[in-house]
Amino acid sequence: GKGSTADYVEVDELEKMPLSEQKKWEKDQMSSAVFSFGAKDAVKKDEYELLLEDQIEFIQALQLPGSKEEKKEPKLTEYQKKRLDIEETKKSLPVYPFRDDLIQAVRDHQVLIIEGETGSGKTTQIPQYLHEAGFTEGDKKIGCTQPRRVAAMSVAARVAQEMNVKLGNEVGYAIRFEDCTSERTIIKYMTDGTLHREFLSEPDLQSYSVMIIDEAHERTLHTDILFGLVKDIARFRSDLKLLISSATLDAQKFSEFFDDAPIFRIPGRRFPVDIYYTKAPEADYVDACVISVLQIHATQPLGDILVFLTGQDEIETCQELLTDRIRRLGSKVKELMILPVYANLPSDMQAKIFEPTPPGARKVILATNIAETSVTIDNIIYVIDPGFAKQNHFNSRTGMESLMVVPISKASANQRAGRAGRVAAGKCFRLYTAWSYKHELEDNTIPEIQRINLGNAVLMLKALGINDLVHFDFLDPPPHETLVLALEQLYALGALNHHGELTKLGRRMAEFPVDPMMAKMLLASEKYNCSEEVVTIAAMLSVNGAIFYRPKDKIVHADTARKNFNHIGGDHLSLLNVYNQWRDSDFSTQWCYENFIQYRSLRRARDVREQLIGLMQRVEIEIVSNPAETDNIKKAITSGYFYHIARLSKGGNYKTVKHNQSVTIHPNSALFEELPRWLLYHELVFTSKEFMRQVIEIESKWLLEVAPHYYKQKELEDSTNKKMPKTIGRSSRTD
Ligand code: CDP
Ligand code: MG
């Protein structure tokens, strides 16, 4: 590919070769060093095939239990075969031999730290073992938290299948805006954020006998706060068992935090993984991923490929490129199934990644770092790691939080490589240099609590009656200034009074499982008589998957379709347009298709919207519609997001009002060419610069109306008038 410096045979060249030559080339490639990544030679051919046979045997052993005595046995039905299969798989997991010891350890200790490699069966098996051992007797549940929603859903589905029950009955899951549990649920998977919220309605977790804080090493904000909360509860609920489960070496640290709780180690089963680096840095890692996948597919023995990308957009780009290249190669290559995995992936598509690869075919999974430890996919032999992940970063000096793509840590890189060695010896292709691994990557990822905005967490803790946050039992405390800033923000939003206590408004805000700014916006819609519109906007903003569909071969059509929804007032109102027109089409799929809209995203927005309406009713806000009152709608939005204001400065650039930081309107915005004087943005995304995503035009005087504590007349005076000729203003641009 252009721009990519990986120096191996171009697949384009391969495409041009006659078939016979291609075969020969492939053969040559197999017997010599296959990749010229780095200095290290590839594994010798025989060695590799040997391991692969092992793997095939291993897989056959799982799939055909007792095949030797098949003649004597009565013929099994499909159903019986499937059940046997599941039993065999369960028994093959590394945790299985430790089943009884583990149960005993849980009986003997109130808090237990569990350490075991990804894929050992911690998440799927331990809750089942404890259920079988009687821990769900007397109407008690076993809870298990996951940092990621996809993991919570897919693991629950798997366990329901293993236990042969319907998902949502005995085994269920709960994630934000979705509760798939019932009265009968005894094993409940949930996101850490969901458990956090459960504390509001059940502060002592009385309905649980066991709580497993799983994937503790991920150190998400919610998990970190849960550590403090469950530790506190364990003191007065001596019957509650706590399990802290982690994939990596943080166990000692967890043990110390939980008053030297014992560590239960599940020995891993790991095959060697050869690591290859590129000789030079890659200019375009998505492109480099595509080439590497094709290269592996053309030259390497069967075995699935896992590619780590940073988000849905990148995954979709990669998927399109790959699909196109594979189609052009046609029957010259074996079947390649391309499957994406990311946080907002619809559940029917999630299931696909766990289905076994058909014989003779190869699967390539394009995943975010969700596949690093949260989700285990069997049969991965090759890992491609560009070395990046998306992270939220909060700068307490500027008060700006922004999502950006950052290099991963060494710990992450090693986890990623480890995914290749679960079922056989594997290979990991790092699309960065050995030098940069050694010198540029940090050892460990910084825990979220030390790098993101704490507004949400502080509001929750205050709602739980925890007033003294400075002395809260944190595993790693957040920076003092971040904590202070969160308190200030909640004060400005009206959620806290000047003693730092929760106000009535704050209590209502805490009912909503959303950012405090969004909660405030929802509550303010009551005053501005536009709750219906604001709820829709909130739902559309919460989808965070792409709303607009932009296929490479129809970019012009897609962009035209998108422009039809543009609202002169800004993107929030454009989103409202999209939703309302979809609703008027009776939620039609066809309508979405014709308008280049992602049907799945809208369906999700509709679900979220319903949940939000339920919550609005709970805080006794009537749903009132006033679609024509766009100023009112914008004022309600401003009531929540008055922190996110930027003002036009020289040369069509924007500066944030409070900290004078440069920000730019995202090219996708309806206001990209408009340049209004005052803008409110929903979020910042940092790529080449700080982009404001989803913006509306506001009037500066609204800020004094909605946030009198925060803004003073003086700082809102339109200094731009003096500096700039009037013609640069918006009026000259719109006509
Ligand atoms: O939690 P841990 O990483 O130790 O392992 P796990 O998630 O319990 O996975 C154990 C096994 O269950 C693996 O072989 C997974 O591939 C399988 N699994 C599955 O087939 N489907 C899922 N949705 C989740 C796990
Ligand atoms: Mg797990």
From TrEMBL:
Superkingdom of this protein's organism: Eukaryota
Molecular function (Gene Ontology), one example: ATP binding
Keyword annotations from UniProtKB, A to Z: ATP-binding, Helicase, Hydrolase, mRNA processing, mRNA splicing, Nucleotide-binding
EC number, as in UniProt: 3.6.4.13
Leading EC class: hydrolase
One GO BP: developmental process involved in reproduction
Domain Helicase ATP-binding, first and last residues per copy: 103-267
Catalytic activity: ATP + H2O = ADP + phosphate + H(+)
Domain Helicase C-terminal: 292-465
Protein name (database record): RNA helicase
Protein source organism: Cryptolaemus montrouzieri
Portion of the parent chain present: 159 to 893 of 893
